[in-house]
């Protein structure tokens, strides 16, 4: 029987790994490759803030797992991992139900010889009172679309009003990391676009956006030379930026900071902190940390089972020579997927597995159509600061590189051409 590789999680890393392995091991019959995900389609997670603001139509940019599996010689199974039996080398999938609560797929088990867990992360609200009840999160396409619909509903209600009263909308974003910063800029752009399409009862200047950060500056995980210009640009756009402001409570209409400030908001987004999905916590004896990440060796094998690998945001991978783990970033997941595509072939051949070494190629932050800021890092160039149009082009290229890894060069070029043609016939903002 062929070596059975099961990959759980169809995010950027898991899907790229399944595609690579399908093209090599699956196509040649060296191994059977199976991808498991609880959704039928994939959208690149770094774009979810654009889905929330409406500047990206998720239906146009989604990838279908069933079709991708057919084209790339792997199998797809719809399901959500709920348990693990390491002794029997099986994972358990929970039953799947349709929108009416009728069972679509029963609970079942899948066997594996090599298991790869790439289930990503979810937002960590740190147990803040009221956050789970009153805040929206941007972990999934469905959550991003929910935010967009609520935003649009505010504008539609104002548009249908019969009075001349000036309408306003207030949005509070908790967390000034990449997601929070990029969402704030996209919402400012959305306010102008909605007014341009005639939904102008709420003027752009009457969308009040507050970005709240517990730390001393925006983009705390990135160099200050990036965070400084971003902070200034956000303030020029009219975004209220609050630093050293820890949210202690969220109510239906307000956020309350630890020092007693009350921030009124009709829409509240929590974009601070991450944690791995709760079901991973000590799953069948595997070692996890305080935020549920699986502890892995430099080979990306879990510390207590060499048959199980984990990578991406759900894995705590040490950085040699430091006391830190590999940061939860898209570029790390891409690098790890590339390594595992080689490692799993070597494992089947009984050879020694290589160790992962994180390479930081820099960071890019998009401020919608207004600007972009970042730095590129390389052996020849060192660290180069970018800002404006050039930084924006490099930012867009990251998504195109992701598409090339999944579709290949020719199909990606066709997608780019189709996107260019569609600009003349589609609205610049999703209006439904």
Automatic annotation (TrEMBL):
SUPFAM superfamilies: FAD/NAD(P)-binding domain. InterPro entries: FAD/NAD-bd_sf (IPR036188), FAD/NAD-binding_dom (IPR023753), NADH-Q_oxidoreductase (IPR051169). Belongs to the NADH dehydrogenase family. It comes from the Bacteria. Its cofactor is FAD. Gene3D superfamilies: 3.50.50.100. GO terms for biological process: aerobic electron transport chain. This is NAD(P)/FAD-dependent oxidoreductase. It comes from Pseudomonas gingeri. Residues 4-337 form the FAD/NAD(P)-binding domain. GO terms for molecular function: NAD(P)H dehydrogenase (quinone) activity. Keywords: FAD, Flavoprotein, Oxidoreductase.
């Amino acid at each position: 029987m062929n070596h059975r590789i099961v990959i759980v999680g169809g995010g950027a890393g898991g899907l790229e790994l399944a595609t690579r392995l399908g093209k090599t091991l699956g196509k040649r019959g060296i191994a059977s490759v199976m991808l498991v995900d609880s959704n039928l389609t994939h959208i690149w997670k770094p774009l979810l803030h654009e889905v929330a603001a409406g500047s990206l139509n998720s239906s146009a940019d989604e990838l279908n797992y069933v079709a991708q599996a057919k084209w790339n010689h792997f199998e797809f199974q719809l399901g959500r991992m709920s348990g693990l039996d390491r002794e029997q080398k099986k994972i358990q999938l929970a039953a799947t139900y349709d929108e009416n609560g009728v069972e679509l797929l029963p609970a079942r088990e899948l066997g594996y010889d090599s298991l790869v867990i790439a289930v990503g992360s979810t937002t960590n609200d740190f147990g803040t009172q009221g956050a789970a009840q009153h805040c929206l999160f941007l972990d999934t396409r469905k959550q991003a679309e929910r935010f967009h619909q609520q935003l649009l509903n505010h504008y539609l209600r104002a548009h249908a009003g019969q009075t001349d009263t000036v309408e306003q909308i207030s949005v509070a974003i908790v967390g000034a990391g990449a997601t929070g910063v990029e969402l704030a800029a996209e919402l400012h752009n959305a306010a102008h676009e909605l007014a341009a399409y005639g939904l102008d009862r709420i003027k752009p200047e009457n969308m009040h956006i507050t970005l709240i950060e517990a730390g001393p500056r925006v983009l705390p995980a990135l160099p200050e030379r990036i965070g400084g210009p971003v902070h200034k640009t956000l303030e020029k756009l009219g975004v209220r930026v609050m630093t050293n402001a820890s949210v202690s409570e969220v109510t239906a209409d307000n956020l309350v900071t630890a020092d007693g400030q009350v921030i009124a908001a009709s829409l509240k987004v929590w974009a601070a902190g991450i944690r791995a999905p709760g079901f991973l916590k000590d799953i069948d004896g595997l070692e996890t940390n305080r935020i549920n990440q699986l502890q892995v060796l430099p080979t990306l094998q879990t510390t207590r089972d060499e048959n199980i690998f984990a990578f991406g945001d759900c894995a705590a991978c040490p950085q040699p020579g430091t006391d830190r783990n590999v940061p939860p970033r898209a570029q790390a997941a891409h690098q790890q997927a590339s390594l595992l595509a080689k490692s799993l072939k070597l494992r089947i051949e009984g050879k020694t597995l290589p160790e992962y070494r994180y390479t930081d190629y820099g960071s890019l932050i998009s401020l919608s159509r207004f600007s972009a800021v970042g730095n590129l890092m390389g052996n020849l160039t060192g660290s180069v600061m970018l800002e404006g149009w050039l930084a924006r082009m490099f930012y867009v290229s990251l998504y195109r590189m992701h598409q090339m890894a999944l579709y290949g060069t020719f199909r990606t070029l066709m997608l780019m051409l189709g996107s260019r043609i569609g600009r003349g016939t589609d609205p610049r903002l999703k209006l439904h």
